[in-house]
Amino acid sequence: MTTGQKGLVALTDKIPFGRELVVIVMAAITLMVCFHGGALKSGPEAGVIMNLPDALLGMQGTPVPVSEGEQEILPKDTEIAKKQYQSTSGNVLSTQIVLSGGEKRSIHRPEICLPAQGWTLESGNVVSVKLSNGKDLEVMRLTAKRPIVLKDGTKRELENVFYYWFVGHKITTPYHLKRILMTNFDMVFHNVNHRWAYVVVSAPVLSGLIPGGNDLKQTDAMLDNAVRELAPEIMKNP
């Protein structure tokens, strides 16, 4: 993040209604640039590599096809990579990268789409993950639940944990608002339109549902280790 971007984000925490004010001001300036300035440059190359590893944490991965719903809703130039990894004990780890094209509506917070998939959001907070290259990466951690029916007809509640973050060109953030602010800042002052991606790593809490299933603490540890290993592989500037 540049010095100017950091100052812009810090401003949101120092004045009343700072975030709302900065968003409004940046939007107004962006419109002025669009009407009176030159055309925006296309964004630089993506900050991610759209190639999920064949194995993660020693677990073999299986490609997951893009659903019909995703194909219908997302712009045609959106790129998506999805894989699922499963341990010998039956624990499951899912990974997904969504990379925007010319249109920016490809990128959104998972909090927007998860309720539409039947999940009830429980909590959200930012956690720091120490990557395998020694750097720290801030990611958003979400927990969500939804009802399921087991094979014997028993009704249970399944909990899932999601870790996600946004990746631009040489910048990352777990915050949707900061992503918007940094996008507008670079559009206005550098005449560049970022090509953003978001990465999601998730896992269900399977304790009590399958023999050897991970509890919440073990699930978090697995996700932490997965991000530690995955991020340096798929991010060009981790």
Shape: globular
Mean pLDDT: 83
Detail the poorly predicted runs.
Answer: 11-18, 29-40
Distance between the termini: 13 Å
The percent range for strand residues is 25-35%
> Main sheet?
9 strands, antiparallel
Helix/strand order:
HHEEHEEHEEEEHEH
Helix content: 25-40%
Number of domains: 1
Structural class per helix/strand content?
Answer: alpha+beta
Total strands: the figure is: 9
- Computed over alpha carbons, the radius of gyration is 19 Å
Count of helical regions = 6
Give a description of the structure.
This protein has 238 residues and is an alpha+beta fold. The chain has one domain (3-234). It contains six helices and nine strands. The chain has helices at 3-11, 18-36, 68-73, 110-113, 176-189, 216-234; strands spanning 55-56, 59-63, 79-86, 92-99, 120-130, 136-149, 155-167, 172-173, 197-205. Strands 1, 2, 3, 4, 5, 6, 7, 8 and 9 form a nine-stranded antiparallel beta sheet that branches. Helix 1 crosses helix 5. The protein is globular and about 60 Å long. The model is unreliable at 11-18 and 29-40 (pLDDT under 50).
Per-chain topology:
Blueprint: H1 3-11, H2 18-36, E1 55-56, E2 59-63, H3 68-73, E3 79-86, E4 92-99, H4 110-113, E5 120-130, E6 136-149, E7 155-167, E8 172-173, H5 176-189, E9 197-205, H6 216-234
Antiparallel strand pairs: 1-2, 2-3, 3-4, 4-9, 5-6, 6-7, 7-8, 7-9
